[in-house]
Each structure stands twice: as structure tokens, then as C-alpha cells.
């Protein structure tokens, strides 16, 4: 009789592709700035990594989803899909903005389904599910369910639309899908010193352009934050006024980044001599003289992007969809007094045209970058010093990865 050989178990846990990608991101981020390189392509192209990032970074942090001017009156709402959740941001009255799930507590229907031609923004008195007409108040509580009056479980106390953790900071509504992020004021308090002068909560949104983007959300964040690409992508728009070589980045902060894009010396001299430059709208009251000498880009990590000038703020709403796909809304916020200026309509249409042009410059680059990242021949290349924001962003990602791995 022969005895069967029992194979000895392999005790070493094989490293998965995901583990390798996480390690490679951390190793890349650990290099000093002088040796910095782009992230491994899988950080932008691998769906398993995207899924990990969604669960462990994007859902766990604060993401901006609306500006308060879009929600000025009771019942005003903005709907969006974010990381697989169908969401309604609503002014529910008494100065309260809520972020509600649109998933009906009955059988899961979207109570404002775009498939049923619901608008992405508007005003409503309540939410009524199209399927069986369950009705919810603006606070998400169940108000009624046809033919179920006597059902003991169908009550306002027991059922409603899920409310997500939300906060308003600098006039923007943020959501934290996991519900356990640090308070937003603590995370971004260092930015208040810069942004308070713009009084963003009092600004008006005058343009809101939507883009379906065939690239990873980090391709856009990196593109937005680094000024090196002025020499290429924006050589006719930004490079002549804010040349790449004059741009500089603030020292590292845990949850945000600031990159300064100063005007050329000639333009700055004109401003100092009392000739305003690049002011199409009314500048914000209360700015410092130095605020007129540059534009500034901000990242409130992981994905809130602000492009700030004396007379405007461009706020980007990012909605990562998959490894190689995202949606963005690029918006223009200005001081409401600007609307009364003579020629305002013409000024606005010129500005929206310009905004479309420079956004397109970026979007086309980002789409082509994503294609390159999918190539088997691509090896991450060295970064220019002007790409310091990319290196800082790598370090942010690495901190999140390491915190997750150590169970913090
Ligand atoms: S699924 Fe909404 S009322 Fe039935
Ligand atoms: Fe750009």
C-alpha cells in the first residue's frame, strides 16, 4: 500500500498585483524631490487599484459636490452620482444643507432617477419615488407609503433616505461617504488664511461646464496642480502671462497643497502702477495687494481643486467613475456685484469661451496621457522641479496607503 503524498502548504502569501502597486506608489513617493518620478502606470490604469482607492481613500475623505449658491432656497437640490452612490444635495430649510441618498427605502429605486427624466438640479418640495410613490421630506424622513398606513415598520421613525456625513467649508458642500473622516475644519484649517479673503460662500456660480473624461482622476489632479505644462499645453494662453519658470509651490501640508502662478514682472509692474490686469469681473473686496499679482491653484486633498484669481474662482467638481474614467464639472464663481456691470453678458460669454478653451487644452492632454499609460512600453519618467505638486500628491497617497495598511 502506498501512502499519498500530502503537498506541504506554501506558507508565503503570494504578493498580489494590488499589493505590488501599493508598494510601488509608496516607494516612488519615498524618493527625495530631486529624484522624483511619475507614479507607476497601474496607479492610473488598474481597476483593482481604483477599487481599493475608492474604498480606502476617496470614500473616507471629504469630496466637494456643490457650491452654496446652487442651494440658496429651501428645496433647491443638486443631484449627482459619486463613487457608485446616487446622491441629492438639498437645502432642507432652516439653513440646513443635507446630502441624501436617492435610494428608496422600499425596494431600492432611485427617487429622482435620471432615467425618468429627473433634472440634475432644481427645486422640489419633497421626494416621491416613481415606483410605488413612497414620499420623503427634504430631511429624508418617510412621509407616506400608499396602502401601507397600518404597517408597523413603515413609519417616519423607522424608514427614510440615508443621510451622508456632510459639511460646508468655504462655501462648498462636502460629503464623506464612509462617515468617519476627521472634521473638515481641522483638515483644511490652514487654507482658511488664504481663502477667507475671497468669501467664497457669497460668490455666484455663473458657468458650469460638464465633461465626460476618458482618464483617471489623478491624471487631472496632477495636471491641474503642476505649472510645468504651461510651456507646452498652455503655451499660448497661460505661459505668456504666468510663465512656468516663475511658479512655485508652498511647503508640504498634510491635507492640502498650494501652488503660486505669478504674473510676469512686466505685468506685475503694471498692476503696482495702478493698471489692473486680467480683471474681467469685479475683484473681491478685501484682497491684499499681493493677491492681484498672481493666480493660485489649490488642492484640498484628495480631489477638490480651486483655481483662484482676484476676480474669480474656478472650482472643479470631480467624480471618479473607474480607473480610466471620470466626470468633471468646471465652474466659474464671481462676485455677485459683477452681474450689474455694463457689458456683463459679453464679458461672461468671452470668459466662458476662454474657460472652455483652456480646459480643452488640459482635457485633450489628459486623455492622451491615459492612452500612453496603458502602453506596455511606458516606464515612469523623472519629474521636473516644477512638478513638485505631483511629488507632494504622491506623498499624500502614500500616507493614506500606509495608514490603511497599519490599520489606523
Ligand atoms: S421602490 Fe420606491 S416606492 Fe417602491
Ligand atoms: Fe492646465
Descriptive labels:
single chain, binds fe (ii) ion, Rieske Iron-sulfur Protein, 408 residues, Naphthalene 1,2-dioxygenase Alpha Subunit, Chain A, domain 1, binds FE2/S2 (inorganic) cluster, 4-stranded antiparallel sheet
Element layout with pairings:
Layout: H1 17-29, H2 42-45, H3 47-58, E1 63-67, E2 76-82, E3 85-93, E4 96-101, E5 121-123, E6 127-128, E7 135-136, E8 142-144, E9 165-169, E10 172-176, H4 184-195, E11 204-213, H5 217-225, E12 248-249, E13 256-262, H6 265-272, E14 294-300, E15 304-309, E16 312-322, E17 325-334, H7 344-373, H8 388-405
Antiparallel strand pairs: 1-10, 2-3, 2-5, 3-4, 6-7, 7-8, 9-10, 11-17, 12-13, 13-14, 14-15, 15-16, 16-17
Bound molecules: FE2/S2 (inorganic) cluster (FES) and fe (ii) ion.
Characterization of the model:
The protein has 408 residues and is of the alpha+beta class. It has two domains: 63-166, Rieske [2Fe-2S] iron-sulphur domain (Rieske Iron-sulfur Protein), CATH 2.102.10.10; 183-405, Naphthalene 1,2-dioxygenase Alpha Subunit, Chain A, domain 1, CATH 3.90.380.10. 26% of the residues lie in helices and 25% in strands. It is built from eight helices and 17 strands. It has helices spanning 17-29, 42-45, 47-58, 184-195, 217-225, 265-272, 344-373, 388-405, and strands at 63-67, 76-82, 85-93, 96-101, 121-123, 127-128, 135-136, 142-144, 165-169, 172-176, 204-213, 248-249, 256-262, 294-300, 304-309, 312-322, 325-334. The strands form four sheets. A seven-stranded antiparallel β-sheet has the order 11-17-16-15-14-13-12, with helices on both faces. A four-stranded antiparallel β-sheet has the order 4-3-2-5, with no helix packed on it. It has a three-stranded antiparallel β-sheet with strand order 1-10-9, with no helix packed on it. A hairpin with a 2-residue loop joins strand 9 and strand 10. Helix 1 (17-29) crosses helix 8 and helix 5 (217-225) packs across helix 7. The protein starts with 16 loop residues before the first helix and ends with a helix. The structure holds FE2/S2 (inorganic) cluster and fe (ii) ion. FE2/S2 (inorganic) cluster binds at residues 104, 106-107, 109, 129, 131-132, 134.
